[in-house]
Amino acid sequence: MENLFKKIQELQDEACRLKEEEKERQKGYSASSPQPSSTWNLTTDRQQHSSRTLPPWDGEWLRAFRKDAGPWNGEKLVVLSLFDGIGGIWAALTRLGIPFTGYSSEVSIPALEVLKAKYPEVHHVGDVRKVERMTVTEKVDLVVGGFPCQDLSCMGKREGLHGQRSKLFFDLLHVLKIFNPSWFLVENVASMTWMDRDEISKYLKLQPIELDSIELAPSKRRRLYWTNIPHPARLPRVKNHPSTFVQSCLLDGIALEEKTGIILSNNSYKSNSCQMELVLENGTSELRYLSHVELERIMGYPSNHTSLCIDEAENNSNPMISNVSRYVQTSNTYHKKRGKICGVGGPTRFCTPPASTLGEPLKDSVRWALLGNTFTVPVIAYLVSPLLKSSVRVLAQPVTISDPVKESECSVMDPDDVWALYNEHERPNWYALILRRSGDRFSRCGRPDKKNPLRIEMQYLEITQPYLEGEEDSWNMLRGTGLFELRQQIDCQISWVTFSHRVTSVVKVQDKFFIYPGQDEVWAVCSRKAWSNFFVYVVESSIDISRLQSGRPGNEGFNARCHLLIKTTEHETYRKTDTTLEFTDISLFCFRAPYVFKQQANMLRLEVGAKGRKVRNIESGIRRSKRKRKDTPEALRDDVNEEGEGYIANVFQGTDRVEQKGRAATTDIYDVGYGPQINASIDEESTQQHLADPETIIISDDDD
């Protein structure tokens, strides 16, 4: 026990030393940081408050970014923030020293009051669904929006992008279409299914960048960001620096973990399975949870950013604000931790309480929800930082959204789309023309908690005979480019697992389709001598459409300039090099690999093979429902359908193989196309087979 207390004392001394170092660094930062332009009207009180309470890890890398960009010499940015929350974008722009004219769309009452108190200069435009062109009369430079994630997250019901809450994305799309901003930044969870991610990319016309806030802050938060702002060239290497540890954000105590868990809207410290890491109180052996002020600092906000006072009577008299008591502590609530009564002292509207009386009139759960639904400020500052450079700003082009933006008219897969499917060697170079699709996300059944079985009718594309030359296996070819023709038979798929991506670089030549590597795509290039392949990033490519009708290989006028990708030590992560390769032989390109950017401009995470579509034992899906109903064949079938894209299968082997490797096997007009499936529906015989053989598995798109 004596050794334990000795160790605790050493940790306390170390914590005090770190605090003193951070105080000294903050003094140096405050003295040397460039001040905003005089035309940027911030109140003196706010400037003093911000400089006094900035989180300690704001300093070095942000200062280096500002120094590299030089002083701001342009007009103020006109920024429209949708789903604004508590103002993460305003905190990031303030941190960067970028002057702005702000417009905010937010409907949450507590969030609105935080915004009005902390950023009084920001204009409010109301519900995103009611925003029209004349709502903001100025030319909008930047639109930012982190739309609701409840239907996309692995912790939700997975209704998808067209769910009741996440479909607000299409209102965001509408705003982009009517304002044509120079830049946009769209954020959501990285645990969404690949179909939802691809549908978002389809309309925004670019691939997202994946970034975990643990790289720049003390909290884990893996997110996808779609932005046409050039990605930063380098990620600051501060993940393991003490300034990004939880300890640097504590008011007192000793952090037992260097980083904390994911801050959610409902993992309140009182009781939840997603509780935060514990803190050891100074001078005692007692453990406590992180406080709201410490969470604010962890997320990049000043201390007490969400601490407000409210006059309940005054706000309840406002017809636009009802039942304020849902959000605030009542006047007789005794705050045990601070030993004082909250809300006493006369009628006051929402305001920042003085430093001497840090009352918390907002309910703990409300403050926690505000922080759980907001941006991580240093991450947003990192992604927006390229706008510090005038050389980036002068290249701005208005964003053009030409596709329909009405939710009912939008879909990840449309008739007449060409999609790539995985072949027997898990190379996505089988192609099919989509005819019809139903079930799953395309047509809802009567019950909101159920999905109809997925059914996709399509015609495979088969490569023309001249392009087969040199292929040893005419069914599972190495090449994934060339001239293809429609197969007459109609095939059917009942799972998303067999699909890889929508083909965008395709030209229709009469009744044939020519597929080639397109700009900003990643392709595997095959080496027939080594019987292996390597990956390249296509910078630019071109073909001569007038020469495609000849149907002769080598006569396409193909030319491509690519950057070589080399694999890093991280799983499926590649680095884009400066090595440039020129190609004129299109037959070398094997298949296209879907990807997302990883952390910075030259890092990419590739999705190679169907293993990224998630394979797991079906029993885990059944176990969740055992508390509700019996495991009858009918109930099991419901469980499988609940998985959305789930179906019983022996993956890539065994019973799904029919004559000619899965395509032309039946006399019916519909043929069960290749893909790990037994039948075009889940029948009772298959269900009974699973009950007898637990090794049968289910494939689903649920994320970890």
TrEMBL record:
Gene3D superfamilies: Vaccinia Virus protein VP39 (3.40.50.150). The active site is at residue 149. Residues 29-53 have a biased composition (Polar residues). Keywords: Methyltransferase, S-adenosyl-L-methionine, Transferase. The keyword Disulfide bond does not apply. Residues 17-27 have a biased composition (Basic and acidic residues). Residues 17-55, 683-704 are annotated as: Disordered. It is an enzyme of class 2 (transferase). Belongs to the class I-like SAM-binding methyltransferase superfamily. C5-methyltransferase family. This is DNA (cytosine-5-)-methyltransferase.
